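User: Teach me something about this protein's shape.
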Amino acid sequence: MLSRRDLLKASAVVGVGGILSAATAEANNSQSRSRPERVLRFAYLTDSHLPTRGHTQDLKSLLDKVQGPEIKAQMVVFGGDNIFSASGVSRPDAEAQLSVFRSVIRSEVNVPSACVLGNHDVWGWREPQNGWLTGKRLAVESYGMPGRYYSFVRAGWKFIALDSVHFHRATGYTASIDPEQFAWLAHELKSDVRPTIIFSHVPLMSVTYLGASGTSRHGGGARISHQMLVGNSREVIDLFRTHSQVKMVLSGHVHMSDSCRFRGVEHVCCGAVSGGWWKGDFEGFGPLMTIVDLFSDGRAFSRTVSAKV
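Assistant: First, the predicted structure itself:
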């Protein structure tokens, strides 16, 4: 039989245990309330290089995957070079490629989507500059883009899509952010302080191409063409120094993948859905896509994963 002293001891233990349990529960509830909420997950699919015939089912299967229970993307962004190549082909051929890609997106994408212009999306490389501009308009209209560059807001985040490819008489195209677009970008960043993600087909910053076989080396130095990295990227990146709301820049173009952080901004080169133009790997990189999670506290996290299905 328990003595009166034993009963008092047991009662005290139960009382303390109840207090500790209540305190733990309150702490857990407080932590749960303060934990940042994931407000959006999106998939960045770049360099699909979809031809008029072949690989349509590959892209459809990938879109099913990113929207399905495995990933549950709430938005899909196509990062440029969405069609096989409009450069150096006839206008009817380019329009046919655009039509096939458009039909796949309309039939398979059941979440909000956005597009970025890539160099291979634009017909008219071998035409005078007016032909190139016509080619840009064809791609913009086919992809349902508001313009060659634009912005939108979703889930409390700002998204800015840039046009990084421009006509060059000698080489067909060069990568830059033209003065008109640069002024617009500066205004967008100044007028809206929401956390921001930037899309550019050609990278503003990437380390991967330094190790690529196509990078020429002279006298111990590496030279990277302004077809591979945005030529005036320094000026664009300098804008971010006074606009800390820029959290991440996503790109493609080089069919390789890397991620580097510079002045607090993560630059992610997202690989290529097509890998080596549907012919296997490119420089050791297979088909890739990037998944990005955005949170209510302004944090963004990316992971680049296989695009094989």
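Now, about its shape. The domain at 42-207+219-306 is CATH 3.60.21.10 (Purple Acid Phosphatase; chain A, domain 2). The first strand starts at residue 38 and ends at 45. If you'd like, I can walk through any region in more detail.
User: That's plenty for now, thanks!
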